[in-house]
TrEMBL record:
It holds the Pfam family PDT. It comes from the Bacteria. Keywords: Amino-acid biosynthesis, Aromatic amino acid biosynthesis, Lyase, Phenylalanine biosynthesis, Transferase. Catalyzes the Claisen rearrangement of chorismate to prephenate and the decarboxylation/dehydration of prephenate to phenylpyruvate. It catalyses: prephenate + H(+) = 3-phenylpyruvate + CO2 + H2O; chorismate = prephenate. The gene is pheA. This is Prephenate dehydratase. It is an enzyme of class 4 (lyase). The keyword Amino-acid biosynthesis applies.
Length: 646
């Protein structure tokens, strides 16, 4: 704090003030100016500044440190991302790039009601299920909730659709009973300052949604978060749910400015409950959208299949159709603010994940294209081919989606070609799919062969099929055969398959020589590329919740690469400052790429690869990330991994 002394204060008064503060373990610094004398005191934050204001000779006291510490931005610069696992091996993250929607009725009323509402909200895109089993009602005569029976229905419905459960806890005596059912505890607005309850719920260590009381300031909300954080949990989600004002057209007044204000004061995730704020069903969707536009990490809303019969808060409970429409609108809005909407993966997709083997005992790695594609070769080189099943999908995006959904353990993704440059789509996929990380990398020398059917010779050939890039990469060889027709194909493997099917000695394909065996073709000429320095670098991706690749050949080779994705601050020298940290740490940055951020013109995601030669790569990268944290707006470590073929 800064203590400004009165102009006519005496030396004795000053001595007394200093003595008083020293006894309370403050470190003092006196600044004598032309106008005022000021004492800067650094020390305990819990002191009531009024005690100092009352001392003789003191004009006023300016607090400089915030009363909340663990919740403050000063304590932790980067946003906290809270992870809530579901029963499908997926982790739902609150506070990152994904917008989360929590939905369900105000109160659990029956099994049938819960099952029906859960089905509806899940199909519209909710990622967690809410519902009160213990209802703190303003009137003791109102419905108080079904208690444990309600928790059972809630859990059963959540498990059926892969939705973790959010429910309110009203008393510490309920902790032993609720423990088995609850994924995220809710502290209701009425209990925001029930400090004893906060301490007990914080000590459970599970994520907690803390709702702002309708009479609390944001500082009071953060002080309550401080109670939870100092009692043992590091997973607190703040929830704005409307405050009481003189306006009675709505149930409460949604303080939407709480979102950006809290964002600057705290690292904790922020969600908004527009249902309890406005209290009128038809007004909820627009406030839900406004919350996301204001930067909230998610929303929690009330949805009821028969709101007219709801036992509590029927008027503000959205119909499933209204919720569905709002979710569509949020899908459209999210990219505008550089985010995407979190989804629950399909139920039947959890068959192969976490490095488990599939039914034939192999791990699954997906790639884009057809059998015989270069990515397939990269898979059989990177993994032990006996242990891996390479599965083709139709697009790069599908590779990422399959990995996130647990349909595949790994994906093989081309990221750069030494002649053609970056594969931009895949850089963009890394910013879109934040649940994906890099598990490894491999660089493949691209070597083309001319393939024909059995009995064909170079002198028979009239038509050559291949991907246009491969045709141009073999130009020197093809220039010797000016009479041939060159025909574009979707991929080199498609060309090989086409030539095999047509069974004409006049046709040939340019593709990798592995296609010869695959499509029963003969190699008419090998290594026909102009430039032997034709390399493609692939990265092996995995979902963040899986472990290291099993069956990867390099398993015993220490990590030698790290990749990052970051957003610089929008100020002069921002990128220079980041690069300076890499330089100071002696890291060899092997690649830097930038991609525009969707919805934010002239802002970019930067991608950096760096070589690490340090034994303890994890520690090294951790300290690098710490040094980078105040130089960037956002940073994500894509992976620390070993690279083959470099
Ligand atoms: C609720 O979420 O059902 C609820 C009672 O909310 P609040 O505590 O914000 O009134
Ligand atoms: Mn309610």
């Amino acid at each position: 704090m800064v203590i400004v002394l009165k102009k006519n204060s005496t030396e004795e008064q000053k001595k007394y003030i200093c003595q008083f503060l020293k006894e309370k373990n403050f470190k003092l610094n006196e600044i004598v100016g032309e106008e005022d004398t000021v004492i800067a005191a650094v020390g305990k934050v819990s002191m009531d500044i009024r005690e100092v204001e009352l001392l003789p000779g003191v004009n006023n006291v300016i607090p400089i440190s915030k009363p909340f510490k663990l919740a403050s931005r000063e304590f932790k610069k980067e946003n906290t991302i809270i992870e809530v696992p579901n029963n499908r091996g997926q982790i739902i993250r609150i506070g990152g790039q994904h917008v989360v929607s929590i939905a369900g009725p105000c109160a659990v009323e029956s099994r049938e009601q819960m099952m029906e509402i859960a089905a509806a909200v899940a199909s519209s895109g909710a990622v967690m299920l809410r519902g009160g089993a213990y209802k703190p009602r303003s009137s003791p005569y109102s419905f108080q909730g079904l208690g444990e029976e309600g928790l059972k229905y809630l859990k059963e419905a959540g498990e059926k659709y892969g939705l973790p459960i959010v429910t309110e806890i009203v008393s510490e005596s309920l902790i032993p009973l609720m423990r088995d059912y609850v994924d995220v505890y809710q502290i209701g607005a009425r209990n925001m300052q029930n400090f004893d309850l906060l301490k007990k719920v914080g000590a459970i260590g599970k994520p907690v949604i803390l709702k702002r009381s309708y009479t609390a300031t944001l500082e009071e909300l953060l002080m309550s978060a401080e109670y939870l954080l100092s009692s043992g949990t590091d997973s607190v989600i703040l929830c704005e749910r409307g405050i009481r004002t003189f306006e009675h057209a709505t149930r409460n007044t949604l303080d939407i400015s709480a979102v950006p204000v809290l964002r600057s004061l705290t690292h904790l995730p922020i969600i908004v409950d527009p249902s309890h704020a406005v209290g009128i069903r038809d007004k909820v969707p627009s406030m839900g959208l406004a919350s996301i536009a204001a930067g909230a990490d998610g929303i929690i809303v009330e949805v009821h299949n028969h709101p007219e019969k709801a036992m509590s808060d029927g008027a503000q409970s959205m119909l499933p159709s209204q919720f569905d429409k709002m979710m569509h609108d949020i899908e459209a809005l999210a990219p505008v603010i550089g985010k995407s909407v979190a989804h629950i993966r399909e139920e039947n997709s959890s068959v192969v994940h976490s490095g488990q083997k599939n039914s034939s005992g192999k791990i699954v790695c997906v790639y884009s294209g057809k059998r015989g594609a270069y990515a397939e070769q990269a898979i059989s080189r990177y993994f032990d081919s006996h242990d891996v099943e390479a599965v083709a999908v139709d697009s790069f995006e599908e590779i990422f989606q399959s990995v996130v959904d647990g349909k595949a353990d790994y994906g093989m993704v081309p990221i750069e070609n030494s002649l053609a440059g970056s594969v931009f789509q895949n850089y963009d996929n890394f910013s879109r799919f934040e649940d994906v990380s890099i598990a490894g990398a491999i660089t493949l020398n691209i070597r083309h062969a001319l393939l024909g059917i059995k009995g064909a010779t170079i002198s028979n050939i009239k038509n050559v099929y291949s991907h246009p890039q491969a045709l141009s990469q073999c130009k020197k060889f093809l220039d010797n055969h000016k009479d041939w027709n060159f025909i574009d194909a979707v991929s080199t493997a498609t060309a090989a398959q086409f030539v095999a099917e047509k069974k004409s000695k006049e046709n040939a394909a340019i593709a990798s020589s592995v296609n010869a065996a695959l499509y029963k073709l003969e190699i008419l000429a090998e290594d026909i590329e102009n430039d032997p320095g034709n390399f493609t670098r692939f990265v092996v991706i995995q979902a963040n919740h899986t472990t290291k690749p099993k069956g990867a050949k390099e398993a015993n080779v220490p990590a030698n690469m790290a990749s990052f994705i970051f957003k610089t601050k929008n100020e002069p020298g921002a990128l220079y400052n980041v690069l300076g940290v890499f330089n100071d740490c002696g890291l060899n940055m092997t690649r830097l790429e930038s991609r525009p951020i969707a919805g934010q013109p002239w802002r970019y995601w930067f991608y950096a690869d760096a070589e690490i030669k340090n034994q303890n790569a994890a520690e090294y990268v951790k300290s690098l990330m710490e040094k980078l944290s105040d130089k960037v707006e956002e940073i994500r470590l894509l992976g620390i991994y070993s690279e083959l073929g470099k």
